[in-house]
User: Fold this.
Amino acid sequence: MGKSITIHINDKPYKVDPGQTIMQAADKLGFHIPRLCYHPKLSIEGACRVCIVEVEGMKNYVASCSYPVNDGMKIRTNTPELRRARRDIVELILDNHPLDCHICDRNGNCELQRLSYSMGIKARHFEGERKNYDEDLSSQAVVRNPNKCILCGRCVRICSEIQHVHNLSQAYRGFRTVVMPAYNMPFSESVCTTCGQCINVCPTAAFVEKSYTQELFERLNDPGLVKVVQFAPSVRAAIGEAFGLEPGHNMEGQLVAALRKLGFDYIFDTQFAADLTIMEEASEFLERIQNKGKLPMITSCSSAWMKCMEQFYPDLIDNVSTCKSPMSMNGAMIKSYFAEKIQVDPKKILSVAVMCCTAKKYEADRPELMFDGLRGVDIVVTTRETAWMIKSAGIDFLNIEPEKTDAPLGLSSGAGAIFGTTGGVMEAAIRTAYELYTGETLVDIELENIRGLQGIKEAAIQMDGQELRVAVAHGLGNACGLLDLVRMDPGRYQFVEIMGCPGGCIGGGGQPYAGANSIPLDEEVLQKRAKALYDLDRGKTIRRSHDNPDIQKLYREFLQRPLSATSHKYLHTHYQAKLPRGIIPDRAIY
Amino acid sequence: MSEITQEKMDQIKAYIDRVKQQPYPTSYLIAVLHYVQGLFGYVPREVMDFVAQEMNLPTAHIWGVATFYHYFNLKPIGKHVISVCMGTACYVKGAHDVLEAIKRELQIQVGQTSEDRLFTLQEARCLGACGIAPVIMIDGKIHGELTAKSVVELIHRYRKAARGKTA
Assistant:
């Protein structure tokens, strides 16, 4: 960083560091310049022109997101002419946008709507030609609606720059430009991993999740069904945001109570199944070590990562754990063990999962996860959809009396809770694997090295004189970086955790939209959500999966032991290479 | 011309291998697509897949480039390519009527290929033959001083020639 320079903003001098853009400098000084296509984690697009400012001596207004500060620069951010120009720009963006805010999925949660409000747009001066494309409803998880797209390119950038999936590009040109997969393929046939990050960053409703709320409301009223629900660790850490709370509140009790009010008969916890996953996964890992199986073993909980692996890393299929995800394990237990317990035909059970994830909708539909001709999970709804259902049913979520989950699939250890954040699965697995391997209890169970939001994290653990080397990556882009290391040097690690979304499940594609005062995938928000889960872990007396008494009971009564034939039938699966084969370029191309 | 043969794929691979020796090989994508179109008359989807694998470029990126430029044909083109000059001189001299006559005769719009795969219709800005406006170009050969009537006769001659060859 060089010597600081002086710039003037709205006629007042400020000392700032050189080498940054006008927007970055202004942000630090408390001037929030309106913006749309800009996202601090993505490359600069400069497409929307909403962030224009006046710079003395320049003929035209400049886009502050891409223009660097210079010494002596005189910037104005709020003159009447500039305000008019900015308003015109937003009006022009709106001129071919559908006028259907009141029936839109993003109603009340739309950046374009907020921008239109803050620009003071009171009338439509331009009536442009409307876009008239079909919605792409082919995917089980992600819906693409080009009619709502304003071509800011955030989805294209997050898909390529953060996730390295490169499923999207802006095809054709001018007014006919459409964001689409290669060859305008339906999403279901594209390399989309269904992670849903395009939904998180979309300022409008050009990308939304495939919604199953209406169907769920209807089936909740079917008297012939036993209605069972499970919810993921990260949902409780984020759902409060959809009701106006600051990030980081653990709303587990309120969520359980609200789900019961919605009409569910049994409320189970995916954290219980996370403990179950750890029992199987840690045992599988030790078996691989003892029998010289394929190493490093790679976790298989993240459904977006599973699809990514099948398309981009089919050579690593044998490295991936055969364990199903916690959601699918719980689904399998609900329709076998639990169905037996309550003596109900599993076909009469409606198994619902409340997930922070859009990819779980895809996962629930995977044929390779079926058993006895049954799906473990019938309907997956995201945190967002669930929040909407609670609001729509008139439940006072914030003031509801907290309630507890039901037995036998509801009790969880602290290890199950931290599954929702990057590094959590690894930490939970080590807590159990260490004890299974050495016969001693691991005392120092908080593995700081693999916590936090660094892209790739490593740790070494001493187990009976042996060094266990592990690595953790979150976000598919970081995962690609880590897996390229694994491809080059397979002996480098013994155990690798991959989560498809930035921050792990807490940053999932189904989490509440960023509010007016935050941005999608804000690191501070992710950290607060993670902290809620770590606090949950710390607050529990049982912090190791194998100490969970209901897990022990499940093995006693039904599964016998980890990796038993029954376990294999219900809890394990195999994946296969998929086409089209994804391509990860050697270097950034944008 | 439009069939995908092993020989053509080998040629493309050799071309890409040469490109890979250059600095910034991915910047040669347009050149590669140009070469592909030269071989097939259009850019087939299977070949875009192949180029993606060989150049290590995401297919969506290639699709974005191929659709951005009007030059690239994404469907097989006809045996003859008709370019109608819509430059100022030709326009003033009735290029619009000529274009409409062709559309009517071939039952296609600009950018499309006739059902018998004989003709593909394109617009051009200025072909530089303003002295004999209005002009059209068929496969690189200029035909000038056309009318809505004479252009149809011209198309008939091409049709007859094509039938003669296949018979």
Notes: The radius of gyration of chain A is 25 Å. The mean pLDDT of chain A is 95.
